[in-house]
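Next up, sample data:
>
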Amino acid sequence: MRELKNGIKIIGIDVGYGNIKCGCGNVFKTAVTEYDIEPIFEGNVLEFKGKYYRIGEGHKEFISDKSADKDFYILTLMGIVKEMKHAGIREGTVYLAAGLPLKWVQSQRDSFRDYLLQDRSIDLKDNNEDYHLELIGCSIFPQCYPAIVKRLKDFSGTNLLADIGNGTMNILYIQNKKPVENKSWTEKIGVNQLVISARNAVMDNYGVKMDEGIIEQYLRSGNVDIAEKYLKLLHTEAVNYTKEIFSVLRRYDYDPDLMKLYIVGGGGCIIKNFGEYDSEHIEIIEDICAAAQGFEHLAFLQFTRS
């Protein structure tokens, strides 16, 4: 959260296909379950307009248009609440900063902004605690670049940025500290594709339906308490995925002898745990909240420069 002199709170929320990331460092799973009556169990329940929403349980299927249903709106509201709770406040005037995949920004920016601003005066409850916010505006930024914007001073020459999320990988060239718009791409090769591939491989080889949570834990840490035969299969799938990532990057002229590669997003841990790479020419930025913090920074600059 960044606060302006007039009291406006700039809140950055990275609305991802796998996780929602907040500028304060809070991360929760992209999943929503709606109830007409209050759920039996407490914890991560948002009450809004007479409905109850359990946040973070289950899995939301990939949809390219995030405004197609109300899930991402509810998840964004929960992100705002978590930012307010982190700051120790229950009400405030909020300017929202969010993002979309690089090549989808132009076509979806206006509709996504309208979607996020569908309510301006908002009352809700998080685990029975009351919150009120006045939502006064929203900026939508292209994903990828904001994750490194605050460290551009470290960049020189030609750099390639790969933002590996759950649904997509965004690719962007940065030349002399400036993003090159005509050298940016979005590929649907996110971590979820690896999870699906691994789950199918386990089913095809052993006739077992493995829970996605087990696969995700293994990909994050490189280990999980399951039988060795499953570990070997998951390892093979993860290694093949990292090879595919680098194959895609080479299609866009990636050459480690000519440029430095920066990897951001949740998929960075997979490259770190299972990929073969030269650490002198590749840097993995492990803070998955870097994009949300970058959104806040860019929105803050918009206000201070105006």
Notes: The chain has two domains: 2-144+291-305, 155-284. The longest strand covers residues 129-142. The helical segments are 71-87, 105-116, 191-206, 212-221, 228-251, 268-274, 290-305. The chain has a mean pLDDT of 93.
